[in-house]
């Protein structure tokens, strides 16, 4: 019981971090139709900004300033580069953001070096939050979960209850009408792109010290957030939420399962001959397969339900 | 009649002609390691260790009038990238390669260097291995061109399991490691040795995880806890060990850790006060050894780089290489290799010998535990934690020695 609960909590907290990352990507995609390949690079930037700021003026200011800076940078990228590229269609966007992701990694390496940087968890949160049976649950993980949930709430309120949210939603489906009503649609796009990048930056501030801040962090998470977005359904925030939690829990539980095909055969009463026991494939445990399970899920979803769990948008 | 000036000219001309072999030439060593990515802090530390040992050797003229130079090359932790770098440095005229933080890389190097030396007589390359400890490298895959200055994992694990066998409260052991040749080897050896030495001890888990990719060890720690393990054995190093230990501390895992690399960059900080008495390490040396041998090096290194000196094998390697160069009066890799085989010197851990049959260094080993600095037994801490290593047991060279199956082919 202790094991199940703790693993579930670990899975949920990892899933919520994935959600923070994929929320920005989903927003940008659903509002602008841009699949931002550089999204995870903004996550990395958020972590590095937070490291640089927190080592000078402390963690709490960094928590606010780093996402703002990341968002500002995202808005500038949209205004001065992406906007020009977008005129030439989707392929240009994809290639541009793809190139941008490499550029940002190189920049980070030039400024902060190739090795991981010491970006610690703030002292106030570096303690146990509660004890479950005999296992302590770190306060920082609880904080991670809290920030993710607050962020979800804030996005929901912004989109559903405010005027600017109305304009954003309308600009998506009826850009000309919105423009005719006197709203500046390109500026809305810039805000959305910057906002999405700021969310990735926030995830970086939170995730960078919970795990490791290093130049490879974008590449490590870049592919998994695309899995989240596709499984959840392109453009669906609720879908991304469900998919993040699913993948977080799936990955966390799968590293703890030692079942193998050989064991399964054994359960069905098949005797393991020495020749059979030597087979590498049969001996692979779920734990060893854990890193590829999300991609397996991605392939399955694309085959069985191409628009994802909650996807509504048709291309 | 010869004038004074003519005599001087003649003498100096003769001297210049007679001693071309003793002209000072630099011995250039290419250090090929992870200098980027998750294991970069360890690579950086070891590069500095090599460079400060070379400075020391040059200052004290260990290699006579020859000097040593060490330059770093990044292999990004990958065997393939290592071979690219090997090719590049050989083109640049390097004849000595230093590597030591991955046996996967080490095995690839042995193979490539064997082939290179066979095909390019007169341009031979020697591999100075100061830390890749897969026993295969001095057994089935042993090579005349490879010299290992660290103890291999069989030696270290024999010492560690003997120490473990003496711990009365040892009941349930969990083995966890990186999923490559070395991690798998550790798992096999620990199982075998414990079965032999303490049949009553139960192995409650055995896990392999991808090397350098796991950022969150909390799920593994939950599994270790659920198994009821009282001790964890791991061959992990660098970031993989630091993150494992940190996750253990976060979840309040009350198990002893038996390790080989708890001194590597990042790990001492992760261990902190929570690991006092519970973190054990087997190694060939630590700064708080019985005579504090090497303390001047540790102090100078800390002052210069604000970092800890832990890669003492760089000292042994530099000393043996220098002695071979000085005694033979030549920097030719073939002659140096022949001189290093069977060489005995005094290193920081006492008398050591490079075994002729397999080029494995024979040296004493220490089992040490993480202890608060007391100024008497524990003078040096690590990473400014206020904690350092205290010797639990010193294993003499003849006990720490393991047999070899090496059938070495020697040139000429």
TrEMBL record, chain A:
- GO CC entries: plasma membrane
Membrane topology type: Multi-pass membrane protein
- State whether keyword Lipid metabolism applies: no
Q: Which GO terms describe its molecular function?
A: transmembrane transporter activity
- In which family does this protein belong, per the annotation? Belongs to the binding-protein-dependent transport system permease family. LivHM subfamily.
Q: Which UniProt keywords apply?
A: Amino-acid transport, Cell membrane, Membrane, Transmembrane, Transmembrane helix, Transport
The places in or outside the cell where this protein is found are:
Cell membrane
Q: Name one Pfam family in it.
A: BPD_transp_2
Tell me what this protein is called. Answer: Branched-chain amino acid ABC transporter permease
Q: Name one GO biological process term.
A: amino acid transport
* InterPro entries reported in the protein's UniProt record: ABC_transp_permease, BCAA_transport_permease
Q: Write out the coiled-coil annotation as residue ranges.
A: none
Where are the membrane-spanning stretches? Answer: 12-29, 59-77, 89-112, 139-159, 191-212, 218-242, 249-270, 282-304
Look up the domain of life of the source.
Bacteria
UniProtKB/TrEMBL annotation, chain B:
Q: Does the keyword DNA-binding apply?
A: no
Any idea where the Leucine-binding protein domain is?
Answer: 26-371
Annotated membrane-spanning segments are none
Q: Which InterPro entries does UniProt cross-reference here?
A: BCAA_transport (IPR051010), Leu-bd (IPR028081), Peripla_BP_I (IPR028082)
- Record key words, sorted: Signal
* Cited SUPFAM superfamilies: Periplasmic binding protein-like I (SSF53822)
Segment forming the signal sequence:
1-24
Tell me which domain of life the UniProt entry assigns to the organism this sequence originates from: Bacteria
Could you confirm whether the keyword Ribonucleoprotein appears in this record?
no
**Family per similarity comment:** Belongs to the leucine-binding protein family.
Query: Protein name, please?
Result: Branched-chain amino acid ABC transporter substrate-binding protein
Native organism is Noviherbaspirillum sedimenti
Please spell out the taxonomic lineage of the organism that makes this protein: Bacteria, Pseudomonadati, Pseudomonadota, Betaproteobacteria, Burkholderiales
């Amino acid at each position: 019981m202790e094991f199940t609960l703790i693993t579930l909590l670990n899975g949920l907290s990892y899933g919520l971090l994935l959600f923070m990352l994929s929320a920005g990507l989903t927003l940008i995609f659903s509002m602008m139709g841009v699949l931002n390949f550089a999204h995870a690079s903004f996550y990395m930037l958020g972590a590095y900004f937070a490291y640089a700021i927190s080592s000078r003026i402390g963690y709490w200011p960094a928590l606010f300033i780093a996402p703002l800076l990341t968002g500002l940078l995202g808005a500038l990228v949209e205004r001065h580069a992406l906007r020009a590229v977008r005129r030439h269609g989707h392929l240009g966007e994809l290639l541009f953001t793809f190139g941008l992701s490499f550029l940002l990694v190189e920049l980070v390496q030039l400024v902060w070096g190739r090795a991981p940087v010491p970006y610690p968890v703030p002292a106030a949160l570096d303690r146990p939050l509660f004890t479950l049976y005999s296992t302590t649950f770190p306060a920082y993980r609880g904080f991670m979960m809290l920030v993710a949930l607050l962020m979800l709430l804030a996005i929901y309120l912004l989109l559903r209850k405010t005027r600017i949210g109305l304009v954003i939603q309308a600009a998506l489906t009826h850009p000309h009408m919105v423009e005719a009503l006197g709203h500046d649609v390109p500026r809305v796009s810039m805000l959305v792109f910057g906002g999405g990048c700021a969310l990735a930056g926030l995830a970086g501030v939170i995730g960078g010290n919970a795990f490791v801040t290093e130049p490879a962090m974008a590449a490590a998470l870049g592919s998994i957030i695309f899995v989240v977005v596709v499984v959840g359904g392109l453009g669906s925030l609720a879908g991304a939420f469900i998919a993040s939690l699913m993948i977080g829990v799936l990955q966390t539980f799968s590293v703890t399962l030692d079942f193998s095909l050989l064991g399964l055969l054994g359960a069905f009463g098949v005797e393991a001959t020495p020749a059979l026991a030597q087979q590498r494939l049969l001996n692979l445990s779920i734990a060893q397969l854990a890193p590829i399970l999300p991609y397996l899920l991605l392939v399955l979803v694309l085959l069985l339900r191409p628009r994802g769990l909650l996807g509504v948008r048709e291309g | 009649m010869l004038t004074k000036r003519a005599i001087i000219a003649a003498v100096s001309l003769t001297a210049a002609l007679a001693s071309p072999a003793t002209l000072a030439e630099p011995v250039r060593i290419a250090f090929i390691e992870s200098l980027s990515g998750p294991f970069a802090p360890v690579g950086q530390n070891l590069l500095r260790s090599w460079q400060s040992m070379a400075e020391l050797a040059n200052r004290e003229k260990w290699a006579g009038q020859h000097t040593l130079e060490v330059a770093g090359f990044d292999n990004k932790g990958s065997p393939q990238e290592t071979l690219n770098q090997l090719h590049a440095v050989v083109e640049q005229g390097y004849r000595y390669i230093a590597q030591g933080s991955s046996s996967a890389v080490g095995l690839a190097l042995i193979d490539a260097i064997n082939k290179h030396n066979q095909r390019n007589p007169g341009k031979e390359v020697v591999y100075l291995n100061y830390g890749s400890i897969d026993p295969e490298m001095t057994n089935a895959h042993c090579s005349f061109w490879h010299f290992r200055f660290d103890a291999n994992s069989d030696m270290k694990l024999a010492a560690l399991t003997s120490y473990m066998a003496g711990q009365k409260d040892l009941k349930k052991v969990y083995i966890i490691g990186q999923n490559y040749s070395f991690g798998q080897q550790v798992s096999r050896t620990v199982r075998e040795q414990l079965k032999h030495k303490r049949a009553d001890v139960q192995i409650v888990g055995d896990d392999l995880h991808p090397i350098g990719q796991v950022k969150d060890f909390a799920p593994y720690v939950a599994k270790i806890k659920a198994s009821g393990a009282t001790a964890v054995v791991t061959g992990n190093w660098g970031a993989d060990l630091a993150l494992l230990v940190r996750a253990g501390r976060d979840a309040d895992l009350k198990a002893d850790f038996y390790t080989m690399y708890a001194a590597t960059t990042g790990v001492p900080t992760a261990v902190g006060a929570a690991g006092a008495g519970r973190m054990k390490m087997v190694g060939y040396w630590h700064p708080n050894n019985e005579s504090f041998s090497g303390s001047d090096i540790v102090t100078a290194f800390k002052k210069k780089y604000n970092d800890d000196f832990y890669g003492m094998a760089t000292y042994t390697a530099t000393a043996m290489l220098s002695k071979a160069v000085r005694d033979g009066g030549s920097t030719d890799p073939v002659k140096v290799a022949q001189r290093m085989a069977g060489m005995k010197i005094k290193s920081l851990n006492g008398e050591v010998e490079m075994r002729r049959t397999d080029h494995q260094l024979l040296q004493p080993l220490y089992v040490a535990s993480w202890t608060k600095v007391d100024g008497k037994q524990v003078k040096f801490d690590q990473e400014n934690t206020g904690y350092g290593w205290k010797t639990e047991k010193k294993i003499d060279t003849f006990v720490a020695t393991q047999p070899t199956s090496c059938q070495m082919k020697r040139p000429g």
